[in-house]
């Protein structure tokens, strides 16, 4: 019998891709999000057992981010329940350069279960499915003044490795630091997109503190603003400004470059102006 895989964050950027690929491979899955049935909510641990019972492998994508203070308690609770329910393998999506994420990774690594850690750089798809899409559609980027470059990873690559980690034994006990093949500044990434859609996307840099107060004016929640500030001050302070070849070691091919992502994604029309 094929192992049953529970995908947490099953409707999200990574989860939905993993679900699609496992379906194509005819691998049994169970969905885990607040809208799945049964539902899964990180804030309601009393209801997790129904979903976890009978599952062999769990893909863990935490919400909103392993950097938030509640993550450690939630991941510990999940690990304990996974052990109780005799789950065999945990595949954790983690973030680079976040001390709290490292603590969560250690909880998974120390669980006694089979584990794989996917410690990922920023997703290319943040520009088409995430936090930067609206600004691109409005053709105006206001961005904090940061001088670092980031090795964006394409989610098609991350998905391939996540699925392989769920399906195959060879990634058990491996911590992969996943980056794309090239470091790019944010200004460069927006300019690649502008180039592909053949429109100008003005890019203005402002001090981080002005950017954060601008987010407050937009009505974002305190938690979201805290997380964005944390990401810009901590994850994007230069500590992650390097490339790792773990993806190539794991999958035997090079990861996709951001420029390729920009070219292919432009064809989908997602960046066509809606205003
Ligand atoms: N974006 C990046 O560049 C980046 C880089 C490295 C690591 N990461 C990590 O990636 C993870 C996010 O993964 P993703 O981008 O694939 O997800 P996502 O696109 O942000 O989607 C969120 C998913 O989680 C579910 N969800 C939201 N709130 C929930 C809650 N309280 N309880 C249970 N499920 C909830 C959503 O479905 P429902 O609405 O139905 O609940 C949805 O399926 C985070 O841990 C983040 O730190 C992101």
From TrEMBL:
SUPFAM superfamilies: NAD(P)-binding Rossmann-fold domains (SSF51735). InterPro entries: Ergot_Alk_Oxidoreductase, NAD(P)-bd_dom_sf. PANTHER family: PRESTALK A DIFFERENTIATION PROTEIN A (PTHR43162:SF1), PTHR43162. This is NmrA family transcriptional regulator.
